[in-house]
Design a protein that fits this description.
125 residues, 3-stranded antiparallel beta sheet
């Protein structure tokens, strides 16, 4: 098959393991193996895990709301449809200190496991 479709109504959303942020694994549900892709919906006061990757570059796109992000030593404020590319070794975190939801599309390649519950303490460090 040359393509797959995930209707919005069929997307499975769940809270993230550590921070409880609602997200849906688009890449996993569509069977992608070469990249990761998720939607993250942060309600006011929520934040994702502060993290970096071993090999994965990540593209962050603000779809709705005001995007707030720590990347390296900078704090960014992004309007809808603005984007940021983060290299693997750059520490990053999206957060929402506004009074409205923020919806992010985050994609990365090459695909890299992101289940913190399955990582060793050394990998987490």
């Amino acid at each position: 098959m040359g393509h797959r479709i995930l209707p919005a109504a069929d997307a499975y959303w769940r809270p993230s393991n550590q921070m409880g942020v609602m997200n849906t694994d688009l890449a996993g549900q569509l069977g992608a193996t070469m990249l990761g892709a998720r939607l993250w919906r942060l309600t006011p006061g929520q934040a994702s895990t502060r993290h970096r990757h071993r090999t994965q570059h990540e593209l962050y796109v603000v779809l709705e709301g005001t995007g707030r992000m720590r990347i390296g030593d900078e704090v960014l404020t992004l309007s809808p449809l603005s984007s940021v590319l983060a290299s693997p070794d750059t520490v990053r975190q999206v957060f929402n200190d506004t009074d409205a939801d923020a919806l992010w599309r985050v994609g990365g390649a090459p695909a890299e496991a992101a289940n913190t519950l399955e990582m060793t303490p050394e990998t987490l460090a």
